[in-house]
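Example record for the data management plan.
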Amino acid sequence: MIRIMIVDNHPVFREGLKAVFAGNSKFKIVAEAENGQLALQKLNTVAVDIMLLDIRMPVLDGISTLEHVKRQFPKVKVCILTTYDDVKVFNEAMALKADSFLLKYASSQTIFQTIQDTMNGQLIVSPDLLRNAVDSRSLEYSLSNEDLDILTKVAKGEHNFEIAQELHFSERTIKGYLTNIYNKLGVTSRAGAVAKAMQLELIRL
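Corresponding structural encoding:
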């Protein structure tokens, strides 16, 4: 049985989550808290396997709570409860080594599977959240869909004339795109552009 703590400042949401788990004997809600400070206090007295942690809370928010849990209770897994547009929060929580991310409107089956996979050591991130995080990074560097498409083709080893033929552009146009991409990413070469784009998870092969 997986022992769960729910940390969220909205009573209605906590009650809804408890109702989701009520009919599943694989999971047990052992504690709940309306803010991070109360959650940390309860972790001193209650055995918890995984914490479902909201971000926006009074007294002690989710990011600060995550940092404390990872330092004081390293055996407790932390699944961040979030919404699809919490990109800044996603990046901060990733840096603090959150164990998984669960969208608040996820189905009960997705919730069960996410918790199970997290307990098995997998980092679980909703595809919608991940996609939105990548889109946000693209906007941060002012990269267009055409830029990303060309970068992906470059990463696959395609030459300028091949890319030009596929996209129905001239080679000169492709070279212009690449020059702009280099400037946007702060690099000076094809290899540098591909490396940075992959590091930022702007493109995937």
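Summary line stored alongside the record: The longest helix spans residues 171-185.
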